[in-house]
Amino acid sequence: MSMLRRIFDEVGCRLLGRMFVGGRSIEDVLKTGERLKKEGYKVTYNLLGEHQGDSVFVDYALRTTLELIGKMSERNQGNVAIKPSLYGLQISPDSFLANAKFIVERAKSQGISVEFDAEQQSFTNDTFKVFNFFASRMEYRGFVAQCVQAHARNIMSVMTKYGLWNKRIRVVKGAGVYKENADRVIGDEKDILVRYKQIAILNRDNWQAPLIATVRDRTLAYEMAKIFRNPNTFEFEMLYGPIGKRLSRELLEKGYSVRIYIPFTDIWCKDAWIEYGIRRSAMMRRLALGEVKRIIGKVFFRHHDSFENN
Fold first, then answer.
1. Are residues 29 and 128 in the same domain?
2. End-to-end Cα spacing for the chain
3. Which residues have CB under 8 Å from 165's CB, separation 6+?
4. 294 against 136, higher pLDDT
5. Rounded to the nearest 5°, which phi and psi values hold at 110?
6. Number of domains within the chain
7. Domain span at residue 113?
8. Which of 138, 145, 194, 290 could form a disulfide with 168 if both were Cys (CB 3.0 to 4.6 A apart)?
């Protein structure tokens, strides 16, 4: 069954994967960012690639990101999201810290923020430690944010350990993005959503304005909007691509701040979109399956009620 899912996801990636990628070069993705900003969105740029243990390619990633920031203008300016394992964490925490410092310093000089992405839980402690190096210092505090995955069983205690409750965060569900041992993650979607809301509310209660990330979950988006009330106390962040466009436009038109997370590649990592595209294809498969189950459930209960009434 897992082999069939992989084949399905690879086919889906080839057909639709590139639709989730905002550019094949710095110039391309900045044009995408400019277009989205004209529509009223904020943007975050993310260079694709991860699990890089070769220092040569880590250096390429650093150079590309610094060049991206340097080429930004008022028309296309946005945050930068970095995957720790692409920028040296696969080599060592010190390597990642050194490279992150170059990026955060350059971003700060441009008045933009760096969002530290979340990957497998094996990277979480070192990622949070490096993030906290910046977030705990006043000169960097307003220029960094950390992604946290609500499905991780130990996320609350790890956030407490590294003092993240009074730092800016991006909250994601995290379920199904990376393979994890079953005992390390929450499996039930409802329980994940409860944890998601708890994290966001605790962060708000510590005088922070979290990034509320969702793909197309309209119910979650409006529940969070109701909880936070004031649109200035949080920000929605949504993926670039064909899924969730209607919801992002709807939220924008209602006056909420909506940020689009835009992945891109460069010439040296031109195939990095493939693994990302496979994950997005898997996401579409799960969403489609969930929708089919929802429709079948509605039809079943409708017929069941009709039978009972007769």
1. yes
2. 41
3. 159, 202, 203, 206, 208
4. 136
5. -100, -5
6. 2
7. 22-264
8. 145
Do 10 and 117 lie in one domain? The reply is no
Same domain, 177 and 87: yes
The DSSP secondary-structure symbol of 283 reads H
| pTM of the complete model beyond 0.90 | no
| Confidence bin at 289 (pLDDT 50/70/90) | low
Residue 304 pLDDT level (bands cut at 50, 70, 90) = very low
Side chain identity at 200, as an amino acid letter? A
| 50 and 138 part of one domain | yes
d(CA 268, CA 60): 8
Do residue 30 and residue 127 come from a single domain?
yes
> In a 10 Å sphere around its CB, with 0-12 CB exposed, 13-18 middle and 19+ buried, how is residue 2 labelled?
exposed
> Amino acid identity, residue 260?
I
- Same domain, residue pair 283 and 159: no
Asked which of 36-50, 82-96, 219-233, 262-276 is least confident by mean pLDDT, the reply is: 262-276
For residue 115, give the nearest of 139, 142, 155, 88 by alpha carbon.
142
Tokens of 68: 């991206």
**What secondary structure, in 3-state letters, does 155-208 show?**
HHHHHHHCCCCCCCEEEECCCCCCCCCHHHECCCHHHHHHHHHHHHHHHHHCCC
Same domain, 210 and 283: no
Q: What is the distance between the alpha carbons of residues 3 and 185, in angstroms, rounded to a whole number?
A: 23
Residues 65 and 103: beta-carbon distance below 8 Å: yes
Cα atoms in the Cβ-side hemisphere of radius 13 Å centred on 44 = 27
What is the rounded distance in angstroms from the CA atom of residue 93 to the CA atom of residue 82? 14
**CATH number of the domain enclosing 179:** 3.20.20.220
197 and 285 assigned to the same domain? no
* Closest CA relative to residue 211, chosen from 242, 172, 177, 255: 172
CA distances from 98 to 133, 142, 300 (A): 11, 19, 57
Distance, CA of 169 to CA of 233 (rounded, Å): 13
